Amino acid sequence: MRVKLKRKMKMNTLHITGSLALLLTLTTSLRAAEMTTFNSLPGSKVRIEGTSSVHDWQTESKLIGGSLEAGPGFPVEPGQTVPPGKVDAKVDVFIPVRSFKSVEKDGKVYSDKMDERMYEAMKQPGSPKIFYRLDELVLKESPKTPDAAYVFDAKGDLAVAGVTNKISMPVLVTPLGGKKLKITGETAVKMTQFGIQPPSPPLLGLVIKTGDDVKLRFEWMVGQKAGAAPAK
């Protein structure tokens, strides 16, 4: 009697476990079907801006790789109605460290030597890419005109030089039509948060002191593949 009862309990447990696994699989499949993927497009750029005891400096990359997966309710068309609150979205992006080039404020190339110092400071050989992964996206303000941007608060993980930190920043999403989006944002961080010591290179017998605080600005262009259906 006890053996039969144990067998029955075991079969019931297996049945429940199997049903839960099936439900989880179906839920995941349905969610995946509702998500719309946007991939990186040319025209994107990231700029890092900082200070030193000699002059301000900036370095820029025109390569942002990765994708955005947008769920139902994410603004993908100009003028789309989206209620305030948390929006279902997944972002995974990367930027090759060696794609950064030091530039003047007007964008002209500045110095190859500064580039090499920057790659060394960012520990490029061991950490060749910067990564960002979105944790949460909350709509704070809808556009007042059809061609204006949706204002979000974004929280996610930023990994630089092998060190990952949580960051928060305002993000603007502008649907451009034609299954394309422009996503812009900026945030301030400290180099030392990522284990990077502000460089102090010598110049004409003097030592340049670089500030710890830097500002990150980005403009990310993304688009859907041909034939993809937008989220509603």
What does this entry look like structurally?
This protein is of the alpha+beta class and 232 residues long. It folds into two domains: 1-34; 35-223, Beta Barrel (Lipocalin). The protein is built from two helices and 14 strands; from the N terminus they run αβββββββαβββββββ. The chain has an eight-stranded antiparallel β-barrel. Strands 12-13 form a two-stranded antiparallel sheet. The model is unreliable at 17-32 and 228-232 (pLDDT under 50).
Topology:
Layout: H1 2-34, E1 36-40, E2 45-50, E3 57-61, E4 65-70, E5 85-86, E6 89-96, E7 101-103, H2 112-121, E8 129-141, E9 150-160, E10 163-177, E11 180-190, E12 202-203, E13 206-207, E14 213-223
Antiparallel strand pairs: 1-4, 1-14, 2-3, 2-14, 3-7, 4-6, 5-8, 6-8, 8-9, 9-10, 10-11, 11-14, 12-13
Overview features:
single chain, alpha+beta, 232 residues, disordered C terminus, 19% helix, 2 domains, two-stranded antiparallel sheet, eight-stranded antiparallel β-barrel, Lipocalin
Unreliably modeled segments:
17-32, 228-232
Silhouette: elongated
Oligomer: single chain
The number of distinct β-strands equals 14
Strand residues, percent: 35-45%
Main beta-sheet strand count, sense and barrel state: 8 strands, antiparallel, barrel
Summarize the structure.
This protein is of the alpha+beta class. It has helices spanning 2-34, 112-121; strands spanning 36-40, 45-50, 57-61, 65-70, 85-86, 89-96, 101-103, 129-141, 150-160, 163-177, 180-190, 202-203, 206-207, 213-223. The chain has two domains: 1-34; 35-223, Lipid/polyisoprenoid-binding, YceI-like (Lipocalin, Beta Barrel), CATH 2.40.128.110.
